[in-house]
Write a structure and sequence with these properties.
single chain, 161 residues, mainly alpha
Length: 161
């Protein structure tokens, strides 16, 4: 395999796994990556975004407020209220379970710190659930790719008509 193409594919997988973890693992199999390579790329991207956001979120917020001073903003938007309700109902574990797929890794890290969770615990939880979801989506991607490449899905769709 050409190293330039390998690096480009790896960076693409990492890019897709920085915010949410469902596209990267599925594409990993189609790109020819093994399970271990997929875990390294997806976990690396997820943890990089988590650590970056845990470290710099306060600074980024201050700079954005300086750049875009606006009117007094509502303290509790409808979206924020939904997140608070979800947090109160399911807590840290429910939030972290859905983080890689629905909520978004940086957003969840931001709110978890804001609600008083220790940063190291956030990193551990993100690691566990990214590995779980990456494994699920890698094997779903493998199944889907095999169905499409073998023509099974195509024959099934034709048989329905």
């Amino acid at each position: 395999m050409d190293y330039d193409i390998y690096i480009l594919k790896a960076l693409t997988i990492m890019f897709f796994s920085t915010w949410k973890t469902y596209v990267g693992p599925g594409l990993s199999y189609a790109c020819g990556f093994s399970y271990i390579e997929m875990l390294v790329f997806n976990l690396g991207a997820a943890l990089t975004s988590t650590v970056f956001f845990l470290r710099y979120s306060r600074d980024i917020g201050k700079r954005l407020n300086r750049l875009f001073p606006g009117k007094n903003r509502k303290r509790f938007s409808p979206r924020y209220r939904k997140f608070i309700r979800f947090w109160n109902k399911y807590g840290l574990y429910g939030t972290m379970f859905l983080t890689p797929v629905l909520i978004g890794i940086p957003v969840s890290a931001f709110f978890s710190v804001r609600f008083g969770t220790r940063k190291i615990k956030i990193i551990y939880m993100v690691t566990i659930f990214v590995v779980l979801w990456s494994t699920i989506f890698y094997y779903l991607g493998m199944l889907g790719y095999d169905l499409v490449s073998d023509g099974v899905l195509k024959r099934f769709i034709v048989s329905l008509n």
